[in-house]
Amino acid sequence: MKPQNLKVTFALLLSNLFISFVGIGLVIPVMPTIMNEMNLSGSVMGYMVAAFAIAQLIVSPIAGKWADKYGRKIMIILGLIIFSISEILFGLGTIVEVLFISRILGGVSGAFIMPAVTAFIADITTEKQRSKALGYMSAAINTGFIIGPGIGGLLAGFGPRIPFFAAAVLAAIAVIISFIFLKEPQRQSIETTSEKATPQLKPGLGRIFAPIYIFAFLLLFFSSFSLASFESLFSLFVDHKFQFTPTDIAILVTGGGLIGAIAQVLLFDHLTRYFGEIKVTLFSFIISALLVFTMTIVNSYWTVMITSCIVFVGFDLIRPAITSYLSKVAENEQGFIGGMNSMFTSLGNIFGPVIGGILFDINFNFPYYFATLILLVGIIIGLFWKKPNTAL
Predict the structure, then answer these.
(1) What's the distance, CA 380 to chain centroid?
(2) What confidence tens digit (pLDDT) does each residue in 282-340 have?
């Protein structure tokens, strides 16, 4: 791909991610209002997030294969269409069953979009460019979260359901942009990505357990588990513990997303070049564990604000570091790895909110204690993760 076309394509991918995650971020400040309006418990909210993740888990391996078979572009477009429909349903839903259907469709959309975008970026970048590109990808996601909650807090003034309809419109815009301007990438083969022949791994899902993959997948699971437990109940936590308003919650998420995006753009490429993806992942786990636990002991408005803004930095570096590592070792299995990446993330997103929601109903600090424990387990696993040899 020509350098100019590469820049345009990359910009389009980042723009689409930005728009779709603005749509997701829009709804964060109004979740406590929806919870109170429909008289839902923390457990139900946790199950609702888990429904999203279960759908993503089931569909992700299939979607990863489809991204390799049918193309990256079509999967991105279909995912955005399904996302738009899911947001409309959530905005219209007045019974809990409709909200669950909406979240299931949202999980399907995520399973379509993320593996395809990750594989798309792997196709259009060299191994040297990939860490930086994936860092920008994560920054685009986080920047969407920066803008989204702020806009959502403002739109909530016109009604708690308005942000969901706004998210549907943004996703529709992303569909139009992708359909008109995005061009299917030329796939890289093993011969073009590496001059060394590497033996094939076992066919099928048995490849998951290969040493070259399994540590990365396990750490994806533990990081997504702890992040989902933390993030899915975050707005409820600060609402119940500190009586924060939707505007306060929007400021918290915006500040955290901004700092995380800055860290990814300015630091991620340099950190991975100097330390490597494995050490960056381990350091990020340590930082996340310390700050998640700190959230349970801070007790003033400004200490909560500062801790909340910093806590996302560690989490924001974990996923791009692991994704960068996987994309480098995956060779021509980028769609498969993207699907497995999404699947293990979904596994964490299932169990994190469910267990977190149950613990939240007992004591609103308990989900964060448990998330800290899971991060500590991830740190122990990370200590045994070593860089593979050149041969698989």
Answers:
(1) 23
(2) 999 999 999 999 988 888 778 877 887 777 788 878 888 888 888 777 766 666 777 77
Identify which of 305, 38, 29 has the alpha carbon closest to the alpha carbon of residue 157.
29
- pLDDT for 65 equals 84
DSSP at 369: H
Distance of CA 293 to the CA centre of its chain: 21
Domain boundary assignment for the chain: 3-185+205-383
Alpha-carbon span 115 to 132, nearest angstrom:
18
Q: pLDDT tens digit string along 134-180? A: 777 776 776 776 677 677 777 877 888 888 898 888 889 889 988 98
367 and 353 Cβ atoms separated by less than 8 Å:
no
DSSP label at residue 350: H
In Å, what is the CA distance from 342 to each residue of 47, 252, 276? 19, 27, 22
Which residues does the chain have with pLDDT short of 50? 190-199, 201, 390-392
> Domain 3-185+205-383 is in which class?
mainly alpha
Measured CA to CA, the distance from residue 309 to residue 323 in angstroms comes to 23
Helical H segments across the chain, by residue range: 3-26, 31-37, 42-69, 72-92, 96-124, 127-155, 162-181, 190-193, 211-231, 234-242, 246-263, 269-275, 277-294, 301-329, 334-362, 366-383
Nearest to 10 by CA among 148, 118, 142, 167: 118
Q: What is the DSSP string of 128-185?
A: HHHHHHHHHHHHHHHHHHHHHHHHHHHHGGG-TTHHHHHHHHHHHHHHHHHHHH--PP
Backbone angles phi, psi at 309, to 5 degrees: -70, -30
C-alpha to C-alpha distance for 82 and 110, rounded to whole angstroms:
9
pLDDT of residue 377: 92
pTM across the whole model = 0.66
* Amino acid residing at 317: L
Those residues with Cβ within 8 angstroms of residue 103's Cβ, 6 or more apart along the chain or in another chain: 48, 49, 51, 52, 55, 86, 90
What's the first-to-final CA gap in the chain, in angstroms? 29
- Can you give the pLDDT at residue 204? 53
